[in-house]
Design goal:
Layout (H helix, E strand, L loop, with lengths): L9 H11 L4 H10 L4 H9 L18 H13 L9 H4 L1 H7 L2 H13 L4 E5 L15 E4 L3 E9 L9 E7 L13 E7 L8 E6 L7 E12 L3 E2 L5 H37 L1 E2 L2 E2 L4 H30 L4 H26 L10 H9 L8 H12 L7
Parallel strand pairs: 1-4
Antiparallel strand pairs: 2-3, 3-7, 4-5, 5-8, 6-7, 9-10
Helix pairs in contact: 1-4, 4-8, 6-8, 8-9, 8-10, 9-10, 10-11, 10-12
């Protein structure tokens, strides 16, 4: 494994790697074949305290920062696993920790940290609005002691393996607000209390093993006490979670990228054709080296985004840029690894085709690279809004 003197948090990396060694390549291959959830792996991560990294110690968490949390997820992917099965429990903390009430934190965080509750589901995207979040149609109607939820979400991942769902819904109609980002509210939904009539989950089959769903709400009742922060200000709150999400997923891409480069470099050094290792040829060396250079650049932006988030200052631009650079770098490294292996890259037992499918997701989710460029153009370079 590539490890110059550039990796931060070596002891943390070693501890996570030791856990990952108990869940080797065959474990992930079998899950990919059967499209099963990595239940045993997620349980061990939880029991070891890694998924509670961002929860303060006073609530039973590890009390680490965003940089350390990102390294945990990076290392999982760097060891050949897929942190996408459980990363939401980290990035949803940005919304709850910064905007949840003391009572909500006291009620939910200790049980999340201890593994009695899972917060792995995040409901924002809808079939007809996509990334145009302010126009979402799921509505929450206030009924006195509770809110009644009607609508649908799509790409709601891990909802079948979660106890709680962080949900964004409109509490004031769009035509009644001054700014289109107003009137949206965030709720912490207890999925265990939902009945079949109130909540329907329709699984979506995807090209990789990623448990995701379309979810329908028909009068789902959510207690008033599960509203996060103030009613109507949820869009602002959810941005903290989104910035955390982009930074953490950038780290996963970086982990994938290092895995691809490690794998390609090792194979290029061992595989002999025409009496010499193929890695001796510059036509093999240069693409691997360039992928590594680009990955290192993305790595630096990941840490800048994480450090800004931990300081409590705006990190939207850096989080988005980190995600774009890392997704591009991991995809470049994936193609290099596949090309280096030739036909063997398509063989199941080499794991490249599995990781290839997994890392391709991040060109599109949780936000497409094109929308990131639009964000940078408008909010960083002050160019006219393009949409």
């Amino acid at each position: 494994m590539i490890n110059a003197n550039t990796d931060r948090y070596p002891e943390l990396r070693e501890a996570v790697s030791d856990l990952c060694e108990r869940f080797g390549d065959e474990y992930w291959r079998e899950l990919d074949d059967s499209r099963d959830y990595p239940e045993a792996f997620v349980k061990e991560l939880t029991d070891a305290g890694w998924l509670s990294a961002l929860i303060p110690e006073e609530y039973g968490g590890t009390g680490l920062g965003m940089a350390e949390a990102s390294v945990i997820l990076e290392q999982i992917n760097r060891c050949g696993g897929n942190a996408g099965a459980c990363h939401a429990q980290m990035y949803t903390m940005g919304t709850i920790l910064r905007h949840g009430s003391p009572e909500q934190k006291k009620k939910f965080l200790p049980e999340i940290a201890g593994g009695q509750l899972r917060l792995q589901a995040f409901g924002v995207t809808e079939p007809n609005t996509g990334s145009d979040t302010t126009k979402l149609r799921t509505r929450a109607e206030f009924k006195g002691d509770y809110y009644e939820i009607h609508g649908e979400k799509v790409w709601t991942s891990r909802v079948q393996h979660s106890d709680l769902l962080l949900l964004l819904a409109r509490t004031t109609p769009l035509d009644q607000v001054k700014k289109k980002s107003d009137g949206l509210s965030v709720f912490l939904v207890d999925l265990r209390e939902a009945t079949g009539d109130e909540l329907e989950v329709h699984p979506i089959q995807t090209m990789m093993n990623h448990e995701t769903n379309q979810v329908f709400f028909s009068g789902l009742k959510v207690p008033r006490g599960n509203l996060i922060g103030e009613e109507g200000r949820g869009f602002r709150y959810i941005l903290d979670g989104m910035n955390a999400e982009r930074t953490l997923i950038a780290a996963e891409c970086i982990g994938d990228g290092y895995w691809f480069i490690d794998t390609a470099s090792a194979y290029a050094g061992e595989r002999e054709v025409f009496g010499r290792p193929i890695g001796q040829n510059q036509g093999i060396q240069f693409p691997i080296a360039r992928a590594y250079v680009n990955l290192r650049s993305a790595d630096l932006m990941r840490y800048q985004a994480a450090d800004l988030f931990d300081q409590g200052v705006k990190s939207g631009a850096e989080a988005n840029m980190a995600k774009l650079l890392a997704a591009d770098a991991s995809w470049e490294a994936a193609n290099v690894a596949l090309q280096t292996h030739g036909g063997y890259g398509f063989a199941r037992d080499f794991d490249i085709e599995r990781k290839f499918r997994e890392t391709r997701l991040y060109q599109v989710a949780p936000i497409s690279t094109n929308l990131i460029l639009s964000f940078v153009a408008e909010h960083v370079l002050n160019l006219p809004r393009s949409y």
